Amino acid sequence: MTQTQPVLARLATQLRETYYGWWVVAAIFVTMTTTSGVGFYNLSVLLGAFTETRFDVAEVSGATSLYFLASGFGGMVFGRLIERFNIRYVMALSGLLGALVFLFVGAITEVWQLYLFYAVFGVLYSGCALVPGTTLVARWFARRRAVALSIASTGLSIGGIVVSPLSAWIIQTQGLATAGYWLALILFIGVVPAALLVLRPSPQSMGLRIDGDPPLADGEEEGPPDGVPYAEAVRSRFFIGVTVAYVFAMMAQVGALSHQFRLVSEREDAAMAALAVSVLAASSIVGRLIGGFALSRLPIRTFTLSFMGLQALGLAAFSQAEGPVALLGASVLFGITVGNILMLQPLLLGEAFGLRDYGRIFALSQLCGTFGVAAGPSLVGLVYDFAGGYGAAYLAIACGSLVALSIFSVAGPVRHGDR
Q1: Number of helices (H) and strands (E), helices first, in the chain?
Q2: Residue 195's pLDDT is what?
Q3: What is the rounded radius of gyration, in angstroms, for the C-alpha atoms of the chain?
Q4: Backbone phi, psi, residue 354, to 5°
Q5: Which domains does the chain show, CATH number per domain?
Q6: Is 3 helix (H, G, I), strand (E, B) or coil?
Q7: Is the pTM of this model over 0.70?
Q8: Phi, psi torsion values for 219, nearest 5 degrees
Q9: Each residue's pLDDT tens digit, 192-234
C-alpha cells in the first residue's frame, strides 16, 4: 500500500497540473461520440426499422435530407446563441431536449410525424455537436488546435463504431418503442453531464490563458478575442472558396460512404462489405490523429489540397477495385481522407478568421455544405442507375472531389499566414 502512495501522489499532481483545455477536449470527445452515434450514423438504422415495420421506402426517402438541412439551419441559430450565452448551458439544453424527442419514437405512426421527428432532432443535434464542439476547442487552443481537434473529433468515428451498432441491436431485440427510451438515456448521459460538469466557455472564464500560456504580468489585461467580423468574413474570397469547395468535397465523401457497403457487396459479399466498412472507419481514426499532429508542422493550405486530391484518388480506386485486396486497399486510402477533410474545415476557418465570430462563420459554411451532403447519396444513385454500375458513379464523385480541389486552390492564402 505504501509503495503505491507516491505513484498515486505523482499522478494526482500531474492531473492537477494538466491544462484544463485537455479536459474540455475529453468532454467534447464524449459528446461527439454520443451525438454522432445516436444521430448522424444512426439515421439509416432508424429509417431501416421504420421501413420494416411502418412505412414504405418511397415515403421516407427524404427524411435524411431533411435532417441534414435542419441541422444546417439549426447550426446557424446555435452559432449565434453560443456567442451570447454560456456554451455549456446551450449544449446541455440541446442534449436534454434531443433526449426528450427520442422518447416519442415509439409513438410515430404517420409519415408527417416521422419527418417532424427528423427535423426537430436535426435542429437540436446541431446544438450539441460540431458547431459548439469545434467552437470550444478553438477557444481553448491556438498552437495545438489541430491536435486537440483531431482528438476531440475522433469521437465522431467512435460513435459510428460503438453507439450505432448498439442502437441497431437494441432496435432488433427490443423494438423501436423501447429503443427510443434507451437512445434518449444514452443521449442524455453522453451530453448533459459532460456539458455541465466539465465544459467551460473559455480559458478566461477560469482565469487561464489559451494553450495554458503563463499568466499575464501585473497590470496587463487579456484583450478581446481576435478575429474578423462575421459580415466581412462571409463576403471574403477565402470564405467563399472554402465553403463552395466543401460543398463538392462533402458531396463526394458522403455519397461514397452511403454506398460503400452495397458496392462491396455487389463485387464480393456482405461479410466482406462489413469488413470494408470497419477498415474504412479504423483508417479514418488513425488518419485523423496522424493528420492532427502533422498539421503542427505542415502548411494547412498544402495539407488540405493534398487530402482533397487523395480523396479523389481513393474514390477512383473504388470505382475500379475488384477482389478483396483492392477493395480493402481502396477503403484504407479513402478512409484516411475522411476524418482529415472533415477536421480541416473548422481549422481553416478558425485560422483565417479568428475567434471573434467563429461559431456563426463555421455554422454558415457548414449549412452550405449540407446541400452537398444531402445531394451526394442521390447523385451516386442516379449515376448508378443511368450507367448501370458503381464504376461510373464513383468516378463521377471523384471528379467532384477534384472540383473541390480546384476551387480551394484559387481561394487565396489563409488570412493569418499559410503556416
Answers
A1: 18, 0
A2: 97
A3: 22
A4: 75, -170
A5: 19-204 (1.20.1250.20), 230-409 (1.20.1250.20)
A6: coil
A7: yes
A8: 95, -20
A9: 999 999 999 999 999 898 888 887 655 555 656 678 999 999 9
